[in-house]
Amino acid sequence: MNSLQNPLTLSFLLAVFLALPVSAADISAGEKKAENCVGCHGEKGNSRSAQWPILAAQQSIYLTNQLKAFKAGDRINLMMQSMTANLSNEDIANLAAYFSSQKPVKTGGDPALAKSGEAKANMCLGCHGSTAAGNGQFPRLAGQHPDYLVQQLKAFKDGSRKSGPMQGIAANLSEDDFKALAAYFGSL
Fold it and tell me: Does the keyword Transmembrane apply (predicted)?
């Protein structure tokens, strides 16, 4: 039996082939596309307004998933649905690669609230990473605008933003918990 007839060799070759990216994302193409994002998300994805999230250093997989969800109408935001309507999968990959490669800024948070939030943060770190820098499909919370995080937690709690695990977690938190957690993550 030659090596290509060996099931282990075939399995290995198949695994290697499937692991190869079809095409690598182009950060410079993403930077050009990101010119449309600056008005809300700021230069290099560092939003100055709590109305819009910081995209800099966000998880590439998370950004890709969110952009696709906006495009498909699975995540509702009229502005983002409009912005993503004409993006190709390649555009989305390039934007995600660009923003994930940028250095984030810290937004800060009330120190007293942050201290209280630190004591509660462990429930978040399992999914969002030990330093809250994100974990693949789970977003970076570190350095995010505290008011933005509070808005998102409220949206999960009232059901206007969908995610089974986050809706379950938010349902068991008070508004004071939201503020404390958001202040802590914003301070990282």
Answer: no
